[in-house]
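Sample entry (165 residues):
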Amino acid sequence: MSRNRAAFTLLELMLAVSIILVVMLVAVPSVRGMMAERRLHDTFDKFDSLARKAQLYAVKEQRTWALRIDESGVAISPDEPMHEEHADNEENAAPDQISCGKEEGYTLLRPASLLPPKNTPSKWTFWRSGTCEPVVVNYSGPDGTWAAQYNPLTGHGEITDQQVK
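Predicted structure, serialized as tokens:
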């Protein structure tokens, strides 16, 4: 009389565990890369949102706004003083900004302008009409790099180069 047992042998269990382990070893680096790519794209979204705010403020308030870039980050602020009659209505809120970590940095390239003198702060101007200077913005951070070209008529940016670390 023979009994049929519905059980797995040790060899079958070891084979299943090893297959699962191999699949996990292949999947984890790809998931890490996707997460790094998502974080890199989020940095572009934050920067692009800040550029759109500067453009919106310029049109709404009918004065020039600038996006200033330095080692501490990116901030938008009015580029021309307010009229005296409107100075009392200005809100005392902190300017919109993006802070940079120690491994992060933004740079501006102006393909259509002359080279500014050394030690000139990087500044990107948005005029009252909503137009802006044509620029290429480069970002470098712990997850990789990207470059975005901005259209001077619309102020919209498009990623032209992206490299994930």
